[in-house]
Amino acid sequence: MITPIPDLTLPLPETFGIPDGIDSIVLALMTGRSYSQHNTVVYQPGDKDRGMPHRNCILLNRLDAMKIGVAEHELVTVQGDAGKMEHVEAIYGAVRPGAALMFYPEVNAIFKARIDRRSGTPAYKRVPVCIYRKFAPQKAS
Q1: Distance between CA atoms of residues 20 and 22, nearest Å
Q2: Is residue 82 part of a domain?
Q3: Does residue 9 contact residue 22 with C-beta atoms inside 8 Å?
Q4: Is the previous residue joined to 122 through a cis bond, with omega within 30 degrees of 0?
Q5: Can you name the residues that pair with 118 across neighbouring β-strands?
Q6: Where in the sequence is the domain holding 123, given as residue range(s)?
């Protein structure tokens, strides 16, 4: 049986409810453990090997960050389809353009885990998120 290649396009910032005038970019987020983490037990707050000083940061490609004017160490908001994390430190690193990395399990709270029909595996390795330069206002309910 041949497995079809999935649609790998990313949604637009409007999909996340980002108002006009907010500098933002949609990236494919990967989740990962730090090198000082075993399962969900964290032994050190950061990841020296990736240059991530603590667990409230996002590893971005410098070119992606520059598209929305994000300086290294600037605080940004990262929004998924189930919530957002504010005041996240942007760290430039060796990640492909169009992708970003944040730590598991903290970031898993901002998106819904899509479950693959055949394998039953949750998708935590390529989740669309929107990164804002400014902190977007809350929508009125």
Answers
A1: 6
A2: yes
A3: no
A4: no
A5: none
A6: 24-38+50-132
CA distance 83 to 87: 14
Tens digit of pLDDT at every position of the chain (141 positions): 887 777 778 999 999 998 888 899 999 998 875 555 455 545 555 655 555 666 688 999 999 999 999 999 999 999 999 999 999 999 998 899 999 998 877 788 898 877 777 777 766 667 899 999 865 445 544
d(CA 64, CA 130): 12
Q: Which residue has the tokens 């041949």?
A: 2
2 within domain boundaries: no
Q: What is the pTM of this model?
A: 0.77
The position carrying tokens 């669309």 is: 128
* Tokens 């950061």 found at: 46
Please report whether residue 11 resides in a domain: no
Give the pair of three-digit tokens for residue 76. 């940004």
Measured in whole angstroms, the distance separating CA 23 from the mean position of its chain's CA atoms is 16
